[in-house]
């Protein structure tokens, strides 16, 4: 049987790479896109070691013309796409007083973290619902938001705003795609050890040790990737539009 295909944005490192590998382990061939080439060789080798094929495409997802071209490439290369993981994302240009947030940082977060996954998903979903779309395995759309979809961080207000916005985008797609048999999931990572958090490692080492989350350790990219792959491959079939917290309990209100 021909393997189903997953498309992962932001695929060359971190959560993106871990998602690619986990999906390959679950029987998917994987297509990745990202801004640069650095890291794609390692992602490809890991996917192939897990039993999947891998191909990649350069794409700035904030450029919607580039998104159109990327999705056309992804759909055409191996005869369609069954699963999409919207992982590409950025943080605030600088943490600090929200009274000092720049227009550039605001626009960057909303363009990449919210607008891009909406239009990538719209482009893929239109093809999924068209006559003749492939069905070689489970289909799903996944949006990677953040614990900040629930928990406000005033020192990076633009990031928090973009993540609660994309969480609502996931819910809207869930309503539309349910009639097509395509579940939609919102993944909310907590403090995950990636390049994005490298600059604040010491800060979070201390906060985790002090009990920031009930599970007192860093989250790893594989924690998120494995959760995504489990959902995509049908581990929780009677669910759509739900937010799954991969955060060691960070999101829970505590007294």
Give a description of the structure:
The protein has 255 residues and is of the alpha/beta class. Helices cover 42% and strands 15% of the residues. The protein contains seven helices and nine strands, in the order E-H-E-H-E-H-E-H-E-H-E-E-H-E-H-E. The protein has helices spanning 14-25, 40-49, 64-77, 103-129, 157-178, 201-209, 221-232, and strands spanning 5-9, 29-34, 54-58, 83-86, 140-144, 184-189, 192-193, 219-220, 243-246. The strands form two sheets. The protein has a seven-stranded parallel beta sheet, with helices on both faces. A two-stranded parallel sheet has the order 7-8. Helix 1 packs parallel to helix 2 (40-49). The longest helix is centred in the middle third of the chain and has 27 residues, at 103-129. The protein is globular, with a radius of gyration of 17 Å.
Biggest sheet features: 7 strands, parallel
List the secondary-structure elements in sequence, H or E.
EHEHEHEHEHEEHEHE
Q: What structural class should be given to the helix and strand makeup?
A: alpha/beta
Strand content: 15-25%
**E-strand count:** 9
Q: Tell me the radius of gyration.
A: 17 Å
Summarize model confidence as the mean pLDDT.
Answer: 96
Number of helices: 7
Quaternary structure of the protein: single chain
**Widest sheet: strand order?**
3-2-1-4-5-6-9
List low-pLDDT spans. Answer: none
């Amino acid at each position: 049987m021909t393997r189903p295909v997953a498309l992962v944005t932001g695929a060359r490192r971190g959560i993106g790479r871990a998602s690619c590998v986990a999906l390959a382990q679950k029987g998917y061939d994987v297509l990745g896109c990202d801004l640069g080439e650095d890291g794609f060789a390692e992602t490809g080798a890991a996917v192939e070691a897990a039993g999947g094929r891998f191909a990649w495409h350069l794409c700035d997802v904030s450029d919607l013309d580039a998104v159109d071209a990327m999705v056309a490439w992804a759909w055409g290369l191996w005869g369609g796409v069954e699963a999409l993981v919207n992982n590409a994302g950025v943080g605030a240009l600088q943490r600090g007083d929200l009274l000092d947030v720049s227009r550039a940082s605001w626009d960057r977060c909303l363009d990449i973290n919210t607008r891009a996954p909406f239009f990538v998903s719209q482009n893929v979903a239109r093809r999924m619902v068209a006559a003749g779309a492939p069905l070689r395995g489970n289909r799903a759309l996944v949006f990677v938001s953040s614990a900040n979809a629930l928990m406000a961080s005033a020192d990076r207000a633009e990031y928090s705003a973009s993540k609660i916005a994309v969480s609502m985008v996931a819910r809207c797609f869930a309503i539309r795609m349910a009639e097509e048999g395509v579940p939609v999931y919102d993944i909310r990572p907590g403090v995950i050890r990636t390049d994005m958090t490298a600059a604040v490692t010491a800060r979070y080492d201390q906060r985790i040790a002090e009990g920031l989350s009930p599970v007192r350790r860093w989250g790893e990219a594989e924690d998120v990737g494995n959760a995504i792959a489990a959902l995509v491959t049908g581990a929780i079939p009677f669910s759509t539009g739900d937010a799954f917290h991969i955060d060691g309990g960070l999101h829970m209100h505590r007294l």
